[in-house]
Task: structure prediction
Amino acid sequence: MSVSELSLDRDPSSRFVPWIVAALSLMCAIALGTAFALASMTADWGRAASDQVTLRVATGDTDIPALVDQVARLEAVSRIEHLPREQVARMLQPWLGDVAQVDTALLPLPALIDVRLKPGASTSELRALIADRSEITLDSADAWLAPLQDLAGLARLVAWVLAAVAVGAIMLVTVFATRSALVNQRQTVDLLRLIGAADGYIAKRFQRHGLRLALFGGIAGTVPGLIVIFFATAAARLQGAALLNGLTPSVAGWLAIAALPLIVALVATFTARVTVLKLLRASW
Amino acid sequence: MQQQGTDGTGEPLVAMRNVGLRYGTGPEVLRDLDLELAEGSFHFLTGRSGAGKSSLLSLLHLSRRPSRGLMRVFGHDMQDMPARDVPVLRRRIGVVFQDFRLLDHLSAQENVALPLKVANSMDADRIDEIVQELIDWVGLGKQAQARPPTLSGGEKQRVAIARAVISSPRLLLADEPTGNVDQEMGERLMRLFVKLNSLGTTIVIATHDLSLPAQYGYPLLHLEDGRLSHESGGAA
Result:
């Protein structure tokens, strides 16, 4: 016998469930996409900030080649470059205008030394080296990236909360739809129990129904969600700001979002089962 | 009348001692019931509308627990029976409802197969074989694929009986099984019950038609204002 005893497919309480689940899945997918993209971007920032520092040497009689030589010998340093004076001057272009028109020799420009550290290496050696040399300052991107990272972290948290709210709403929709379906199918459910159906047998029918509805809704919401995330992050990266270069979910992030219909279906299945068993166990 | 059981252990199939039933906080609809149903017995249950016949049947088919008193079914105390163990006992009880309670979206054959399907104790081919045999036995071979809305009252009743007996229940309960069919069909159905009883099934038939007990001569359980009295059967 292949026909189900419970005609749940024709149950009016289930009619809108896939579309509500689809809307919530879309919201969840976009929230997860935002969270994963921000995570990738801030990880990028962290990598860039942690292995690159600049030594700024005030004008004076410091022996720059000797200093470069000293720094290059440190264990933590993988690469070092003394920036040419013209390149330093070009950094002032936003304030001075075309530096080609300015006699940079007259400017009290500091010497800048870019230091690339080995992955995971600390700046402590470098800081110790310049500790008693007040004319040398160590600039790290950490200082100005920290507030941005905090902000991105907050945005990520909000995105996770939104995703959790969407999943919670899917559970609530499933609970209400299951309860309504159980009320509508009460006579059939009573009959099944009378002829010896265990509660688990009845719950399984509602589980399968919940799984089908949620899987359909999950796919209908997640696919457009993936498209929105792809184009939105690509558009942000096209703005040209170097800070946004890493704004795209990682491969694992994309896979996690693509798995959303399965997660939604499992949540709905579990919720439908628990709801039915709880209601059935309330009566003998 | 209290027949002694033949449950192998001498214990009745169903035993009630001082049983009462109330719905919610309302008054008792069944009071101080003492009842024993021996295996293989046949009883008629009579009483006016509202006397408590359906309530007593609901206790017997384990839809409700007694509000008080002791009730043993197939040797198990119902007072302490956990809900998860009840379905197994229900599979040993067949019920024929006055309103048939067939599922309209399933064929007659699928309706009859339901108890075997929920018991999940045999494969689909074996179920089909047994269902076909039983459908033929109740004379519905040609209507096996018909859906209940296209069947007559008598045909629906026979589908309901086939569904009630397919899992070879030890106890068969029928609520007004002849109430919705004409006299000829009623007699055919009664012959079916007698045949089932002769094969060992314990039967309780609730009816308001007092001519049935008189005609068949089986013992009578009579309910009046929620109280049960026992009468021996008349001449068949």
Notes: Chain A is about 65% helix and 10% strand. Chain A touches chain B through 19 residues (CB under 8 Å). Chain A has two domains: 8-47+145-281, 59-134. Chain A has a mean pLDDT of 88.
